[in-house]
């Protein structure tokens, strides 16, 4: 019957488009620290835009990965041929099973999440925001783990985690539509990202 205290930890997609009214709303949240779980390539392609004075902490959980499959999803969405090559013929399942295991098992993942959770115990890092590119996999795992550490029942943690699918599908509809217009198999993508 308890409640998790609101306003201390936020979850997001990439912050490279943060501007105008969104920047003002972000600033109004009083976020002190942003934990960026993305790879170096993702950060270079879409650098965060943050208000001055916001601590930007890089926690690249896939730094030790050979292919960082979950981090390549947006690239695949932009190129139907690459999607078919990378994911078609049953390759998607094996690729992403490995990638999702790495999100929690790589030394870089363990070190990154340790840094995130340790920092969040200190008031000077809160309120904080954690994000990756889509806010679904690496960030979703971080958010689910935090809720579990706080004693939230597993069924509620799963319910919160799955909300991302609904929100992500709505937000990414224009990308899916473009992918399909270019001849891509949207069913293949949906099976990979679980929406």
Explain this structure.
The chain has helices spanning 20-28, 40-45, 73-77, 80-87, 91-105, 107-120, 138-149, 154-171, 173-181, 186-193, and strands at residues 9-12, 33-36, 55-58, 128-131. Helices cover 53% and strands 8% of the residues. The model has no long low-confidence stretch (mean pLDDT 85). It is globular, with a radius of gyration of 17 Å. Strands 1-4-2-3 form a four-stranded parallel sheet, with helices on one face. It contains ten helices and four strands; from the N terminus they run βαβαβααααβαααα. The longest helix is centred in the last third of the chain and has 18 residues, at 154-171. Strand 2, helix 2 (40-45) and strand 3 (55-58) form a beta-alpha-beta unit. The protein is of the alpha/beta class and 195 residues long. Helix 7 (138-149) packs antiparallel against helix 8.
Shape: globular
Strand-pairing-aware structural class? alpha/beta
Give, in spatial order, the strands making up the sheet with the most strands.
1-4-2-3
Task: Tell me roughly what share of residues is in helical segments.
Answer: 40-55%
The stretches of 5 or more residues where confidence is low (pLDDT under 50) are: none
Terminus-to-terminus distance? 30 Å
Order of helices and strands: EHEHEHHHHEHHHH
Major beta-sheet overview: 4 strands, parallel
How much is the average pLDDT?
Answer: 85
**CA radius of gyration:** 17 Å
Number of DSSP strands?
Answer: 4
Strand content: 5-15%
Number of helices: 10
């Amino acid at each position: 019957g308890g409640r998790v205290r609101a306003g201390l930890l936020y979850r997001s997609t990439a912050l490279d488009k943060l501007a105008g009214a969104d920047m003002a709303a972000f600033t109004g949240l009083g976020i002190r620290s942003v934990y960026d779980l993305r790879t170096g390539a993702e950060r270079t392609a879409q650098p965060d835009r943050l208000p001055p004075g916001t601590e930007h902490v890089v926690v690249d959980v896939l730094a030790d990965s050979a292919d960082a499959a979950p981090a390549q999803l947006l690239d695949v969405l932009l190129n139907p041929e690459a999607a078919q090559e990378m994911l078609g013929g049953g390759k998607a399942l094996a690729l992403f099973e490995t990638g999702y295991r790495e999100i929690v098992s790589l030394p870089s993942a363990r070190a990154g999440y340790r840094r995130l959770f340790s920092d969040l115990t200190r008031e000077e890092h809160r309120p904080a925001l954690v994000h990756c590119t889509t806010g679904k996999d690496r960030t979703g795992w971080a958010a689910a783990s935090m809720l579990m550490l706080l004693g939230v029942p597993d069924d509620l943690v799963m319910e919160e985690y799955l909300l991302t699918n609904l929100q992500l599908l709505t937000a990414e509809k224009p990308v899916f539509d473009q992918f399909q217009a270019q001849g891509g198999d949207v069913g293949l993508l949906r099976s990979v990202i679980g929406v």
